[in-house]
Amino acid sequence: MKTITKLNSQETLLKYGISPSIHRMTIMNYMLQHRTHPTADEIYSHLHGDIPTLSKTTIYNTLKLLVAKGAIQEITIDEKNTRYDAEIEPHSHFKCNVCGHIYDVPSPKIGGITDKSIYKISEVQVYYRGICTICRSLLMH
Ligand SMILES: [Zn+2]
Ligand SMILES: [Zn+2]
User: Fold this and answer.
1) What is the distance in A from the centroid of ligand 1 to the CA of 36?
2) Residues with beta carbon < 5 A to ion ligand 1?
3) Strand-pair partners of 85
4) Which residue range forms the structural domain that includes residue 134?
């Protein structure tokens, strides 16, 4: 199982033209396995126990590199922390105001700016905030 996930992260890095060092593979692997939109701090606290040589700076720099190469995307739904997402297909995010969980939701059809527009769109980020179904059912009790 471990070998398979390692291979996946290595393949992902190579696909985006990133040379796969152990630290990069570890972080990419974490991103592929945790679709929770983690912050750099969350990644650090999960990994530094297993890999003491992995510093916060390495994590920040690696995440920056992965974003620059297009292997992951940066999301800014949380005004305090930058979050990272291994899902790079266009999608939107819903943040629950109660539990803080960030869910992937399909992108809405955006009106107004189209291909015919003078603007060439490289990125669309749509954020929703509210109460998720789990928290809603808990609140109803
Ligand atoms: Zn919730
Ligand atoms: Zn996402």
Assistant:
1) 13
2) 96, 98-99, 132, 135
3) 73
4) 92-139
For residue 34, the CA-to-ligand 2 centroid distance in Å is 11
Total count of domains within the chain: 2
Model confidence, pTM:
0.82
Q: 22 and 75: one domain?
A: yes
Tell me the pLDDT tens digit for each residue of 86-138: 998 889 999 999 999 999 998 776 666 666 667 777 777 889 999 999 999 99
| 111 and 80 housed in the same domain | no
| Residues 111 and 81 occupy one common structural domain | no
How far apart CA 61 and CA 4 sit, in angstroms, is: 25
Asked if 107 contacts 124 with a C-beta cutoff of 8 angstroms, the reply is yes
Structure tokens at 31: 């991103």
According to DSSP, the residues that pair with 94 across neighbouring strands are 103, 128
